Amino acid sequence: MTDLSVFPVTKKWPARHPEWLQLYSLPTPNGVKVSIMLEESELPYEPHLVDFDRNDQGSPEFRSLNPYGKIPAIIDPAGPGAEPLPLFESGAILIYLAEKVGQFLPRAPAARYETLQCRRRGPDVRSGGFFPQIRWSRL
User: Fold this and answer.
1) What is the pTM of this model?
2) Which of 5, 51, 81, 95 has the lowest CB atom count within 10 Å?
3) Which H or E run includes 119?
4) C-alpha count within 13 angstroms, C-beta hemisphere, residue 132
5) Distances 61 to 7, 14, 49, 50, 68 between C-alpha atoms, Å
């Protein structure tokens, strides 16, 4: 069994399945990107809700995983070299997962860079997912 106890974040969000990838997120545009990738790649994962209403992202446990206090973040207990890998930032996580499963990211350099270029398109803060309290009609 994988021991994730060295990661302080697991004190606040204990892993019921420590052999699975651990996802710390919230259903925002960036958070959902990683959830979709995990579903599509069929990797087993355990989601942990980082509740912004309770300021979970500012907790010492979460900031031990991502010092910027942003979601999503993961711990892959079966990272490179069979060592646990903590990772944050949705773009880095998406590239890591694509390389881990050997899908979704072409190996040919030109196609790879074109895919990475397109990866930057998608939902962002203007979509309303991150700032639902803003009255968009007033902007």
Assistant:
1) 0.82
2) 81
3) helix 109-119
4) 6
5) 8, 11, 13, 11, 12
Question: Residue 124 contacts by C-beta under 8 Å, 6 or more apart in sequence?
Answer: 29
In 3-state terms, what secondary structure has residue 48? strand
How do residues 102-124 score in pLDDT, each as one tens digit? 998 888 989 888 888 875 554 44
Report which of 96, 103, 56 is spatially closest to residue 76, judged by C-alpha positions: 96
What number of other Cβ atoms are within 10 A of residue 54's Cβ? Answer: 10
Give the 3-state secondary structure of residue 97. Answer: helix
Q: Contact at 8 Å (CB) between 43 and 97?
A: yes
What is residue 138's DSSP assignment? G
